[in-house]
Specification:
four-stranded antiparallel beta sheet, mainly beta, elongated
């Protein structure tokens, strides 16, 4: 049980971030809500909720709490960080044994 909750961020997949018009019934919006909470012992806890919202009668309702945030098809894939393995220095290189001619 938490003693305090503060919403610290909201990200969504809306095409227009400042959209103010009332959405048509059935419009779906995916949001990632970031929350800072404090439990009853006073320990801080950071939480995030992936939500699917659906409009009905001029308001947004939570249709589901999702396992992970939805990714837009138009989002470019993220690349894994590029790491390089340093080439051996000439002073530390160990020569390979040469094949014997027996």
């Amino acid at each position: 049980m938490t003693a305090a909750v503060k919403v610290t961020g909201v990200q969504d997949d809306a095409t227009s971030a400042g959209q103010q018009k009332v959405p048509a019934d059935g419009t779906v919006l995916h949001q990632l809500v970031l929350v800072d909470a404090t439990d009853q012992a006073g320990s801080p806890v950071s939480l995030s909720y992936a939500l699917t919202l659906k409009s009905r009668a001029g308001r947004w309702e939570v249709a589901s709490v999702d396992d992970a945030p939805a990714i837009r098809a138009s989002s470019p894939p993220s690349a894994a960080p590029h790491t390089t393995t340093p080439s051996p220095d000439a002073s530390t290189a160990v020569p390979s044994p040469s094949p014997s001619n027996s």
